[in-house]
Design brief:
Two copies of one chain form a homodimer.
Chain A: E1 4-8, H1 12-24, E2 27-32, E3 43-46, H2 52-59, E4 64-67, H3 74-82, H4 91-98, H5 100-109, E5 117-120, H6 123-132, E6 137-140, E7 151-154, H7 161-168, E8 176-180, E9 184-194, E10 200-202, E11 206-211, E12 214-220, H8 227-244, E13 248-257, E14 262-268, H9 278-281, H10 286-294, E15 308-315, H11 327-333, E16 338-341, E17 351-359, H12 362-374
Parallel strand pairs in A: 1-2, 1-4, 2-3
Antiparallel strand pairs in A: 5-8, 6-7, 6-8, 9-10, 9-11, 9-13, 11-12, 12-15, 13-14, 15-17, 16-17
Helix pairs in contact in A: 1-10, 2-3, 4-5
Chain lengths: ~375, ~375
């Protein structure tokens, strides 16, 4: 009897679980939002993940339900659990990923390093936070933000009035998250896998470069990372996974400060863009690891295959024609580039694919990955 | 517009093309012999590959037709070509892979190193060959043999009488292939990819260990291979690919003699068991390379990621229960093992999966791969 994993959401993260599922011999089924999405090859169902009946019907024939995204509502998750469906990550962990205010609260309870923060319900409270934190801060909507959406730097107490107004009408809300504007030297990300039985595997911490709030590039492992930094990042990742009871892959996005402290920026409880390098650069990719973790199978080795891997996102894609029309040129010029595409139509700023390159010299590897990815843009 | 590849045959080779197809963004369709085969996830059609109409219908919506095996009859291939379908490898190349007598004849014409051989039509001719070659020889049926089937060592002129009798009734036949019993020190295999445009990529030559005529283990690259041996093997592989006009992956199985000569044993014009190590051990796997080659896209780098990769086949599988029931144990004990399964029911001698391990010390890598694979047997 093969293991059967049901993935809610038909985006590129679900798509990238297909390859390791086929190789291992794990049956993978996907509940896609619509026809023709990235994970279309394994899309056995199409339907609304906010509808409990749809999700329950999808879950009937699988051993475990997992996710391409964190947006499945808590009432749907509760209905699954009540019906006896195994769900990883579980509703309690996902609740933390679904609400940035809850996340900050839980990180504080776990004693994790993080920026100064507060829940603010109006301009007065925002003004007080600004006054205490140098006059500038980051305001975030607790829910629904991703890839830089729902995030804004403000230096004025009225800089988030539109969001306060919108939230006042929101049954869930009332408060915004405000955070200290961290003076970071770079951004890092720590990938961790955790099984329901409690086994944990940590990948080496990586450096991520964001552009316009979107992950653009990842250097793995993080260059010039001291053994101490690597250990601290892995410990923080493991402590968060354990503290929140995360099952499957967890990505902890981090700020590194000039005095080599790390502060938690965001969490993602699924395979994450900052871990795509593992597809070609690690013994076990984050997608295989996620499948093993949610099936409560022993985890694979999380070590790199080569000294360096660089991942560069293909953001937007060509103005004319599809990604694959550039294959000829990109493959001819960059035979070492591993090209991954998501079956999505190009659109400005959209993640439509990525390129991984592995090798011995970071400078060469980074050059190759950037050059190859650039051939898919205009 | 995505590239679309149609694969005839739904076995494990077609299955293993799915992962790179999904990652690249190549649409893959499979014409499977029956329901529930290894490549079932991409099996868009089920039907008889010996029926031209079935195959033509399947070919209608793809850019190129390629194969999981070499058994598609020449009249079906001719019908495809006549209908304007792109077929790689093409009928002329496949004709050589389909008939071992034709293969020996063509290798002789190309001046390739090979064992002494002859076409024999009866016991008298066999007796003459035996007399000239030390009294023992290998007799092979020109068609239909694989994994040691249709191969027999004889030392008696009447040792192949049953095959002569069977062939007499075969419209295609009449002759058997008889070959010198080569006193080899080991068996090697050379993987080569060639595109319709003529680009060639050669992998490092590997050592293969056969058991009962079936590939059991591959050490990549071949241990203690001199630079000369590596060069000669690559040159022979490239010359065969070019000489026969092979498109896609070609595997050249070789004997190495005690004086470090190599002799061609068999050819396979498709991804081959001796190249499975590339899935986890090379920059470009043979399955991705095959897709690139048949689409006439530039080839990927064929270099190893780690000093050593060892592939061990899972032959037969457990006597009770399926392969996946052993995951728990195998993954716990061997976190570095890459497990590949074919979705096939265990049966004595059947190839049901394989394990790849990569690393720096050959002894450790081989131990790990063998130990992990053995956990799937009784």
């Amino acid at each position: 009897m093969a293991y059967r994993v049901g993935v809610i959401g038909g985006g590129q993260l679900a798509r990238m679980m297909i390859a390791p599922a086929v190789e291992l011999g794990v049956e993978i089924r996907v509940l896609a939002e619509q026809e023709g999405m990235s994970a279309t090859l394994a899309a056995t169902s199409v339907g609304d993940y906010r509808d409990a009946e749809t999700v329950l019907a999808f879950a009937r024939d699988v051993d475990v339900i997992t996710f391409d995204h964190e947006h499945v509502p808590q009432d749907v998750l509760a209905a699954l659990v009540e019906a006896g469906v195994t769900v990883h990550p579980g509703p309690a962990a996902l609740a933390v990923a679904q609400d940035k205010l809850v996340m900050r609260q839980r990180m504080a309870e776990l004693g994790m390093p993080q920026p100064e923060w507060a829940a603010v319900t109006g301009p007065d409270e925002l003004a007080a936070f600004l006054a205490e934190n140098g006059g500038r801060a980051v305001v975030k909507t607790p829910r629904g933000g991703y890839d830089g959406k729902g995030v804004r730097v403000v230096s004025d107490a009225h800089g988030a009035d539109d969001w306060f107004a919108a939230l006042a009408e929101d049954a869930n809300g009332g408060a915004l998250l405000v955070e200290e504007l961290v003076d970071f030297t770079r951004e890092l990300a720590q990938q961790v896998a955790r099984t329901p039985s409690g086994q944990i595997a940590t990948y080496p911490v990586v450096e991520t470069e964001q552009r316009d709030g979107v992950c653009a590039e990842v250097l793995a492992p993080a260059p010039s990372a001291s053994a101490r930094l690597t250990d601290v990042a892995a410990s923080v990742g493991a402590a968060v996974a354990e503290g929140l009871g995360v099952t499957g892959m967890l990505a902890v996005e981090l700020f590194e400060t000039s005095d080599e402290r790390i502060l938690i920026n965001e969490l993602a409880m699924r395979p994450h863009n900052s871990g795509h390098w593992t597809q070609d650069g690690a013994v076990t990719s984050q997608f295989e690891q996620h499948l093993r973790a949610v099936l409560d199978l022993p985890l694979g080795q999380a070590t790199p295959l080569q000294p360096w891997t660089v991942m560069v996102n293909i953001l937007g894609g060509p103005a004319e024609g599809g990604i694959t029309e550039r294959f000829e040129n990109a493959m001819a010029q960059h035979p070492a580039a591993k090209i991954h595409t998501y079956g999505k139509d190009p659109r400005p700023g959209r993640k439509v694919g990525h390129v991984n390159v592995t090798g011995v010299e970071l400078e060469d590897v980074a050059y190759e990955a950037r050059a190859a990815a650039s051939l898919f843009l205009d």
